[in-house]
Amino acid sequence: MRYRLPLFWSVALALVVVWLLLELALPWVGMWVTGHERPLPVPGVVRLIYLALALVGAAVYVTINDESIAEFLRPLIAGLRGPDPAAPRAPWLRGARLAVLVLVPLAAGGFVYARTAPRIQSPTVLRIQHPTIPGAYERMRNPFRERLDERTLAEGREIFQINCRPCHGDAADGAGPMAWGFRLKPANFTDPGTIATVVEAYAFWRVTEGGPGLPPEGTPWDSAMPAWRQDLTDEQKWKAVIAAYDLAGVEPRKPEKLEGFGPAAAWAQAKPAETPENLERGKKIYAKRCLVCHGDKGDGQGPVAPYLNPRPRDLTLGAYKFRTTGSGEPPTDEDLFRVITRGVPGTAMSGWTTLSAEERWLVIGYVKKFSDAFKEKGTVVTPAKEPSASPELLARGKDVYKRAKCWECHGESGRGDGPSAPTLKDDAKDAIRAANLQKGWLIKGGREPRDIFMRFSTGVDGTPMPSYADSLSEDERWALAHYVTSLQTKEEPSAAVVLRAARVAGELPAAPGDPRWQAAPHLVMPLAGQVIAKPRWQNHAVDAVTVRALYNDRAIAFLLEWDDWFKNVEHRPGPEPELRPWTYPQIDLNSERTHKLRDAVRLQFPVTVPAGLERPHFLLGSPGQPVALWHWRADVNESGGNAVVKERSEGFQKPIAELGAEAQDVSGRGAWAEGRWRVVMTRPLVAKDPTKDVAFEPGRLIPFAVQAWDGANGETGLMMALSSWHFIVLETPVPASAWLLPLLGVGVVGLAEWWLITRVRRTD
């Protein structure tokens, strides 16, 4: 006889399955459908809608007749009635019933507390996505659209790659190397809701005026979009606009209708045959997507190559870094497909998921023709089953790390600050940096143990990173891979924008090494190169700063930490850098320095915290909306004095003013060790001069931003790394009144249970 699950438990199981599908299965389905590298989160509204539909469906099914209602309620009534005194006693059943009766009111109280307890909400930016175009721009027409040819497209791509790529990406998908440092992300032009919905004149207006040129109702206050009015001619701007549409695979909106949005990524398409026709198709894709970096001949000498660090790969050499084949051997087609799809973190090489799978295969077929290396096939390294991580395996990996002298380049703690790091050069004699193994999100060939194992097994051709296939056993390489993975920090940049400052009793920690800092909440702030104003800077060295804050009744202290391979405490500024055509400084990051610059970091706060969403621009404020700057300098720190000076700014167009002695109330000290700066800044909660600096009040969201300079990277002035606005809030204890409603909820549900139990027993 087949067992039939009671109706109540069938409904409960069905609802649990629906919830699991929404929470766990759908993100993976979304990843598979879109070709994304990671599971895609399901919006909360979508989960709520489908759960509500499931509940309604269950209610309809249960109430279809009186018999099903009675069957559904039977377990509930039995639970309320309690065990039959005449039946054999089951102690576990009595305990389970009691636990359920206790947990239900407690769960109700927890639910009420979660909905009513005071908390700080992350601020949102409300704005009109597409404000009305000014009349002066509305009637403009692109003079190149009607007579568009390949030469014009090529010129536009070059302009786009030099000026727009840092934020909007090679593929115009909003995933440029600077994008991660901005809270308001650059527009993804491949999204049908962006440039495909506007006329070309609208895009030209946005390029010309930038973020500062938007009307008040549409201003994204955290926008890093520069105004290209003075930097590019109208002709260059129109060509850049054409390139943006072309790279995104969309057409500008016509006044009467919307055009198509281009093909979506398709992962399941079969690899096409390498025929002359397909070779020609691959050539066209290469010319459109790859030529500006890798060059017409594939030699890495494209028109934007001088602006990139590291330089684009010379495809004619047939030497590829990330492979599954042995050292010195050509990669497989699948290796090339993987790199094109995933991109290379920390470089200008984006993941080309905007291309269909077929298009990626086609361009691979063409790229292989640049080198004779592909006439031979490499031998794929096929490892045995990956061992599970264990303390013993990690200890063995640590020993291998020392014996193989990995620390000479990557440092004792894996930050890339080993004694040999400053001397590293690739096969082209260009200086390169050892990978920072702690920053897993930037490890170029992949961060998982299997990815790292392959690097040890195959080497990284064209660099000093050798293959250890002959010198280390497979077991040793697996142990080393797991140990390197264990070095990755848990403090990674995220979508969080609010730093919580914990309250402490007694004095605040003044030293970076004070153990109390480790218990403080932290916020990892991503930084981008300053590309808003001249001289624009793409090659920033500081990519993230970890910030902690503590406060007491009198003052607040900040701890800022960031990786810096070399300690620079001199300040001997050299001549202003020579500017290339368009925007970017001509500084060879791989040559010997003619001057030395200091390391530095700066905290930025609005002098007056606005009541609404409007804030000064995050690049040094706005006219009439000043910001206060706490500027820490490594050279002053080294001399033993107070290393922080307070400054004031009203926009990058104006000089920064150092405040007088009467307003200097920030103290700060820093320490450098193992390739990392740790800087503490302390200030009273209320500034000496409240008109020139922000006041810290518990429970209030206060905007703040960070700017950083790496002296060894030639950074000074506007050549820096910077963040968008984030927020700090001084935490306050939960008031006693916050517990009243949860306790009331517990009481109401408990009384309801008592009434139901009494009523059920009376009916027996």
Q: Which CATH first-tier class of the domain at 498-733 would you pick? A: Mainly Beta
Q: List low-confidence stretches.
A: 256-269
**Strand segment tally:** 14
Q: Kindly, what is the distance between the CA atoms of the first and last residues, rounded to a whole number of angstroms?
A: 32 Å
CATH topology of the domain at 498-733: Immunoglobulin-like
Mean pLDDT: 83
Work out the helicity level: 25-40%
Radius of gyration: 30 Å
Q: Which range does the strand content fall in?
A: 5-15%
Tally of DSSP helical segments? 19
CATH architect. name of the domain at 498-733: Sandwich
Structural class: alpha+beta
The major beta sheet can be summarized as: 14 strands, mixed
Q: Choose one word for the global shape.
A: globular
Short description:
This protein is α+β, with helices and mostly antiparallel strands and 764 residues long. It is built from 19 helices and 14 strands. Strands 1, 2, 3, 4, 5, 6, 7, 8, 9, 10, 11, 12, 13 and 14 form a 14-stranded mixed beta sheet that branches.
Description:
- The chain is α+β, with helices and mostly antiparallel strands.
- Among the domains are: about 140-250, Cytochrome c-like domain (Cytochrome Bc1 Complex, Chain D, domain 2), CATH 1.10.760; about 275-375, Cytochrome c-like domain (Cytochrome Bc1 Complex, Chain D, domain 2, Orthogonal Bundle), CATH 1.10.760.10; about 400-485, Cytochrome c-like domain (Cytochrome Bc1 Complex, Chain D, domain 2, Orthogonal Bundle), CATH 1.10.760; about 500-735, Immunoglobulin-like, CATH 2.60.40.
- It is built from 19 helices and 14 strands.
- Strands 1, 2, 3, 4, 5, 6, 7, 8, 9, 10, 11, 12, 13 and 14 form a 14-stranded mixed beta sheet that branches.
- Strand 4 (about 545-550) and strand 5 form a beta hairpin.
- Helix 8 packs across helix 9.
- It is globular, with a radius of gyration of 30 Å.
- About 35% of the residues are buried.
- The model is unreliable at about 255-270 (pLDDT under 50).
